[in-house]
Amino acid sequence: MKKFSLIELLVVVAIIGILSSFLLPSLAQSRDKAKQAVCKNNMKQIAILFALNADDNEGRFPESTSHQWPGYGPVSWDDNLSAYDGRDLSTTQKNAGKLNGSDFNNDAGIYQCPTDDIERLFGTDPDCLPLTYSASAFFDNNGIDNKSRGIIGVTWVGRMPYAIKLNEISDPSNTISLAEIMRTGQMVGRYWGSGVNADTINSTPELIPHDGLTGSNYLYTDGHVAKTSFYKTISKSDGSLASTSNITDTQWDAQ
C-alpha cells in the first residue's frame, strides 16, 4: 500500500483549511438567519397575545403603568400578558417593578431575541430577564406629543394610563406596535423601557440588533412581522423622511 508523503499530507490539510475558510462565513450567516427567524417568531407570538388581551379588554393593547398614578403599580405591558402566555403572574409579582431571572430559570422566553446578549441591571441588581421588544410609545403632555404617537403610554404624575384600541388604528399593516432595542435597564416586568419612540431608536443605533438601523424586526398592529430599515419606518406618505421629533404620518403614528 502506497504511503502518503509529508508534503502530500500538508497539501491536503492546506486544501481543507482553504475550503473551511469558505464555509465559515456561510455558517455564520446561517446562524444569524436562524436567530432572526426565532426573533420574528417571538414577535408573532406576542401579536397573538395582544389579540387575546384585546378580546378581554375592550379591544385595547395592554397598558404599562407606574406607581405614580393613584391605584396603579409599576406594571409593564408584558406583565399584563401573563394571563395568556402561561406565566399567570400574581398581583405581587406584577407590582414588583421587575421580575427576577432566578425565579424563571433565567429564561425570558418569547420576550428576548436570541441576538440580545446585553447584560441587564436593575440599579446594581443583575437578577433580571432581558426584554428586547418595546412597544411604540404614546405621550400626551396635555395634548398629543408628535414625537410619540404610539400604542401605549406609561403613566406618571398628570398622565392617565393609556393603550389604543386596535380598531382606532387607520392603517394596521403600516403601524408599528413593537420595535427591537437592547437597553441595560430594559427588562421583563419593568414599566420603564416598555415603550420606545423613533427618536430613541435613531439616537442609539448600537443598541439595535441584527443590522441596526438598516434592518431590524418590527411587529405591526395587524400582527405581521417584517425586517426593515428604520428609515423606511419614518418615511411619510409623500416619500419624504420625517424628523424623529415629529413622526406624524409615519409607521410610528398610531393616532
Automatic annotation (TrEMBL):
The keyword Ribonucleoprotein does not apply. It comes from the Bacteria. The keyword Transmembrane applies. Keywords: Membrane, Methylation, Transmembrane, Transmembrane helix. SUPFAM superfamilies: Pili subunits. It is found in: Membrane. Gene3D superfamilies: Glycoprotein, Type 4 Pilin. One of its GO terms (cellular component) is membrane. It is a single-pass membrane protein. This is Uncharacterized protein. It comes from Lentisphaera araneosa HTCC2155.
